[in-house]
């Protein structure tokens, strides 16, 4: 068994394709495929499921993936201890729904970089179902997802509650809605509404809140960050968890603000999830811990 065989498996898992992994590794696809096959024969396990749409980890492969990553990180530590100038930095991948990230994610990445200056952090925006699938297949180390209070959490994941907030109406400070202490459903229906696409928790919440009634005009967007930009440009209002708005750069610049929804007591939870495994790579564990500490500090700034 050679270290590069394990690196190749990690690349295929991360990229979901033998072709894309071959391009990144500067190998021919047949050469990469043969190297992986040799490792599978040596281990006696089919690590990959090969489909027309790409390559994903098999169930036995997912069980072995944490051990593969641990070996690679141990090799990195050995190279670093030996003073090697060109050691290979590992990557931690985080899948995140957009309605929760900027105020929390930026300080987390900054703190993590101080702990692991050569470990890359790749942040991928995705819907919750895609995040769960990638966590199961080893494509993501961690996932940030929203839950409405009372939602079931998947048993196959270890879930940690980071933040608890409430849905709020996000508007420009010069909007008529910003002059009200709370926004009613009737108020919201009278404004252009910037809604999240189907598949997001906030889409489900707004559909329930409006009870089938239609706003005067609506947009549909893929993620809170674009929604907040559209609000800042005066295109309408959007509904997001308060922890997606408080501390956001647009809020700090005075371009957006928020108001509670009258008569609504719904809570939204931001959960940090990862696949249950006996062994967790050190960098992924450290990033998990930084998320928990930072969320604890940030939670005190949110509206109760």
Query: Helix segment count?
Result: 11
Which secondary-structure class do the elements indicate?
Answer: alpha/beta
Mean pLDDT: 86
Q: Rough shape?
A: elongated
Radius of gyration: 22 Å
Helix and strand string, N-terminal first?
HHHEEHEHEHEEEHEHEHEHEEH
Helix fraction, binned, reads: 40-55%
Strand count, sense and closure of the main sheet?
5 strands, mixed
Poorly predicted segments: 84-88, 300-304
| Beta-strand proportion | 15-25%
Please tally the β strands and state the result: 12
Tell me what you see in this structure.
The chain is α/β, with parallel strands linked by helices and 304 residues long. It is 42% helix and 22% strand. It has helices at 3-15, 18-25, 29-43, 59-81, 102-115, 128-137, 185-189, 201-210, 224-232, 249-252, 282-299; strands spanning 48-51, 54-57, 91-96, 120-125, 142-148, 157-165, 167-171, 192-196, 217-221, 237-241, 257-260, 268-275. A hairpin with a 2-residue loop joins strand 1 (48-51) and strand 2 (54-57). The termini are far apart.
What order do the helices and strands come in, and which of them pair?
Layout: H1 3-15, H2 18-25, H3 29-43, E1 48-51, E2 54-57, H4 59-81, E3 91-96, H5 102-115, E4 120-125, H6 128-137, E5 142-148, E6 157-165, E7 167-171, H7 185-189, E8 192-196, H8 201-210, E9 217-221, H9 224-232, E10 237-241, H10 249-252, E11 257-260, E12 268-275, H11 282-299
Parallel strand pairs: 3-4, 3-5, 8-9, 8-10
Antiparallel strand pairs: 1-2, 5-12, 6-12, 7-10, 7-11
Helix pairs in contact: 1-2, 1-3, 1-4, 2-3, 5-11
């Amino acid at each position: 068994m050679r270290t590069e065989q394990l690196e190749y498996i990690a690349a295929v898992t991360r990229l979901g394709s033998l072709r894309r992994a071959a391009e990144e590794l500067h190998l021919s696809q047949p050469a990469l495929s043969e190297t992986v096959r040799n490792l599978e024969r040596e281990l006696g396990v089919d690590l990959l499921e090969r489909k027309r749409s790409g390559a994903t980890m098999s169930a036995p492969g997912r069980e072995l993936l944490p051990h593969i990553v641990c070996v690679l990180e141990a090799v990195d530590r050995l190279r670093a201890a030996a003073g090697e100038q060109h050691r290979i930095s590992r990557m931690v991948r985080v899948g995140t729904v957009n309605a929760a990230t900027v105020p929390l994610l930026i300080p987390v990445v900054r703190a993590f970089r101080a702990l692991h200056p050569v470990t890359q952090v790749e942040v991928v925006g995705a819907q919750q179902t895609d995040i769960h699938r990638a966590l199961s297949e080893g494509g993501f180390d961690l996932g940030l997802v929203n839950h409405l209070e009372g939602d079931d959490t998947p048993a196959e994941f270890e879930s940690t509650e980071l933040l608890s907030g409430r849905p709020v109406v996000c508007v420009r400070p010069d909007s008529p809605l910003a002059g009200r202490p709370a926004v009613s459903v009737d108020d919201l229906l009278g404004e252009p509404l910037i809604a999240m696409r189907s598949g997001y928790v906030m889409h489900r919440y707004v559909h329930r809140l409006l009870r089938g009634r239609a706003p005067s005009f609506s947009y549909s967007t893929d993620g809170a960050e674009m929604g907040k930009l559209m609000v800042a440009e005066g295109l309408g209002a959007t509904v997001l968890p308060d922890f997606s708005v408080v501390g956001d750069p647009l809020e700090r610049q005075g371009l957006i603000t928020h108001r509670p929804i009258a008569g609504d007591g719904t809570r939204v939870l931001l959960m940090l999830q990862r696949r249950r495994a006996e062994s967790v790579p050190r960098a992924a564990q450290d990033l998990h811990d930084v998320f928990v500490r930072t969320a604890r500090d940030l939670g005190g700034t949110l509206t109760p």
